[in-house]
Write a structure and sequence with these properties.
Layout lengths: L14 H13 L4 E5 L2 H12 L4 E6 L3 H4 L4 H6 L2 E5 L9 H7 L9 E8 L9 H13 L3 E6 L2 H8 L3 H5 L4 E5 L10 E5 L1 H13 L8 H13 L4 H16 L4 E5 L4 E6 L6 H7 L10 E5 L6 H15 L2
Parallel strand pairs: 2-3, 2-4, 4-5, 5-6
Antiparallel strand pairs: 1-7, 6-7, 8-9, 9-10
Helix pairs in contact: 1-10, 2-9, 11-13
The structure holds pyridoxal-5'-phosphate.
Pyridoxal-5'-phosphate binds next to helix 2.
Length: 315
């Protein structure tokens, strides 16, 4: 990062940003890409590139873009979310999606876009599911966007290229932070036309940055060096899930990829603070915790977590 060659990305002449955008577009098999500050900004730029004021997008009822992005699509894009139930697999219920598509009638918002998330809660959507979504989108002339914050994990888990996971979609957002370990940044990819449009929205959202090659350099390092090693995170997640499942008083939902969901049966008492005293920082919502494996959590750390939780719960 310290030696990154920089320019002014608002004028479009930062070489490090260009390199990153081109590399990610190529990895995902798309024409173009734009570097953005976050996954949230990336999804919002995509939604605004696909939809106009008063349009509607179909989205999973607990998908990140709908639940955890501050309602940005509605607030800043004037885009109405139409939620669709998500199946156990993490896929949208496409029958429900189909019956939510509005007829061409002035009573209704115009349905313009279908949006998926992969991985979702650590679950990998099958390539067949992704293609079924494409068929529905084509039938109704909808755009098709993927919130692929963890697309890299999906590709590793399926043993396919990132481009295979991205193939069905018009636009794909990927995060360079999260498992890949870059400090900041996401990339939105798609056709040149959609990415030009997204670039305009990025500017309006305050996300065009000047000498941002400094940050793009970290993203490039992450993309070049940290995709294949996600398999280590998946192995560590399995070890963590198996270790925690052996502890009395815990229920464990081991997802695919890098997430493990844990539920303490009964009250967690002061577990969070007691773990913190032992150097294990966890976050709990009631008696459940989502544990996520990434670049900075080693096999030894996993062993420490298992031992600490076992001792604190059964002391
Ligand atoms: C599935 C998913 N999409 C999008 C985001 C948003 O990414 P960011 O935190 O960079 O805005 C997250 C963040 O956790 C996420 O989990």
């Amino acid at each position: 990062m310290a030696t990154a060659e920089v320019g002014d990305d608002v004028f479009g002449d930062d070489p490090s940003v260009h390199r990153l955008e081109n590399n990610v577009a190529e990895l995902l098999g798309k024409q173009a890409a734009v570097f953005v500050s976050s996954g949230t900004q990336s999804n919002l730029c995509a939604l605004m590139a696909h939809c106009q004021r008063g349009d509607e997008y179909l989205v999973g009822d607990h998908a990140h873009t709908y639940m955890f992005e501050g309602g940005g699509a509605a607030v800043l894009g004037s885009i109405q979310p139409q939620t669709v139930p998500m199946l156990e697999s993490g896929m949208l219920d496409l029958d429900a999606a189909r019956s939510s598509i509005k007829p061409d009638d002035a009573h209704f918002a115009r349905t313009r876009l279908l949006c998926l998330e992969n991985t979702t809660d650590g679950k990998v959507l099958s390539l067949d599911d992704l293609r079924s979504g494409r068929e529905l989108a084509d039938e109704y002339n909808l755009g098709y966007h993927l919130d692929g914050a963890r697309l890299w994990n999906a590709a590793i888990a399926l043993g396919v290229d990132p481009a295979d996971v991205a193939a069905s979609f018009d636009t794909v957002s990927v995060c360079l932070s999260k498992g890949l370990g870059a400090p900041i940044g996401s990339v939105l990819s798609g056709s040149s036309e959609l990415i030009d449009e997204a670039r305009k929205w990025r500017k309006m959202l305050g996300g065009a940055m000047r000498q941002v090659g400094l940050i793009a350099a970290a993203g490039e390092h992450a993309v070049d060096n940290h995709i294949d090693r996600l398999a280590d995170d998946h192995r560590n997640a399995e070890t963590l899930a198996e270790g925690l499942a052996d502890i009395d008083g815990l229920e464990v939902d081991a997802q695919n990829t890098n997430m493990v969901f844990v539920r303490v049966i009964g009250d967690i008492g002061g577990l969070e603070n007691r773990l913190l005293d032992r150097g294990v920082m966890t976050r709990w919502s009631g008696n459940t915790s989502r544990m996520v494996l990434h670049l900075d959590v080693s096999e030894a750390d996993v062993a420490t977590v298992i031992t600490s939780v076992a001792e604190e719960l059964n002391c």
